[in-house]
Amino acid sequence: MRYLSEDIRPLLENKELLELVLVDGEGMVLDAEGDLFNPEQLAALFLPVDLLLKNISRDLPLERVEEISVRAFGPRLRVVLQSFSVAESSYLLIALFPITTFYRQIIANIVRVVKDVTQKLATPAP
Question: Residue 124 above 70 pLDDT?
Fold first, then answer.
């Protein structure tokens, strides 16, 4: 099943997005686009960060921490982690962007597309 929309392909081709990985709450890669890094390796590296953010939200008076970004050099890129839930299932979106990309609107659109697809999958057929 492809969760990531065809709308993502032009972002990869235009180098506005370098890689995108969708991970379920158990760390399984559900879908991936781009080939800068191994998707399973990204999931294994960043799932503990997502769990840390959930612990921070729980232990501090914060409703929810939903995003964190990490800037890296060599190659110059920004890793954005966006955590969200659909129908009581949690997901982690790992997106790699060039440093120069204004990523917020792009990631919001990607999360909307993924939520639409996962919501359809979670809704029982009539």
Answer: no
Show me where the domains of the chain are located.
8-122
Helix, strand, coil in percent for the chain, rounding step 5:
35, 30, 35
Among the CATH numbers 3.10.129.10, 3.30.1180.10, 1.10.10.10, 3.30.450.30, which is that of 8-122?
3.30.450.30
Residue type at 66 in one-letter notation: E
pLDDT, residue 35, reads: 87
Q: pLDDT, tens digit, for every residue of 41-75?
A: 999 999 898 888 888 888 988 887 878 889 998 88
What span, in angstroms and rounded, lies between the C-alpha atoms of 82 and 75?
Answer: 21
| List of residues 6+ apart from 46 with CB closer than 8 A | 23, 79, 81, 92, 94
Tokens in use for 37? 């890094």
